[in-house]
Amino acid sequence: MDPIADLLVRIKNAQAAGRETTEAPFSNVKMAVVKILAAKSFIEGVEKKGVKNKEKLEIKLKYDQGIGAIAGIKRVSRPGQRRYSSSSKLRPSKQGYGLMIISTSQGIMSGQDAKKKKIGGEVLCEIW
After folding, report:
1. Within this chain, do residues 59 and 7 fall inside the same structural domain, yes or no?
2. 34 and 58 share a domain?
3. Rounded distance, CA 73 to CA 125, Å?
4. Other C-beta atoms within 10 Å of 31: how many?
5. Where a domain ends, among 68, 94, 117?
6. Which of 14, 23, 91, 114 is the most exposed place for a label (fewest CB within 10 A)?
7. CB within 8 A of 1, min separation 6: which ones?
8. 3-state SS of the chain?
């Protein structure tokens, strides 16, 4: 299965169930995605827990008056169908209310940051 899609589904399902935290297996790509979500205030924070080869990400979810901060998550680029975009074709997600996460040659970053740096790449997901 796609590890990034697994991470996104874990976050979405945990928030739908009203949990405060959720866990996912650790990888550097997942950590970069979750750090962007924390920086853009979609989640409260993330911690790396466990010992070598059994590390996990503990993701603390964010709620506003009982409603989750993440309304929707969409995996754009999948293993069977990759989606790439140049910096000139990057548009704001959900009229500026959403977040696009892109894997570029300079690392994983938000769509806004990639557009400022004039870097294109693989569009991983959209969050609103």
Report:
1. yes
2. yes
3. 7
4. 17
5. 68
6. 91
7. none
8. CCHHHHHHHHHHHHHHCCCCEEEEECCHHHHHHHHHHHHCCCEEEEEEECCCCCCEEEEEECEECCEECCCCEEECCECCECCEECHHHCCCHHHHCCEEEEEECCEEEEHHHHHHHCCCEEEEEEEC
- 41: which 2 tokens? 């205030």
Tens of pLDDT, residues 87-115: 999 888 878 789 999 999 999 999 999 99
Question: From residue 88, how far is each of 21, 46, 77, 93, 112 by CA, in Å?
Answer: 37, 32, 18, 14, 12
Per the DSSP assignment, residues forming a β-bridge with 61 are 43
pTM greater than the 0.85 cutoff: yes
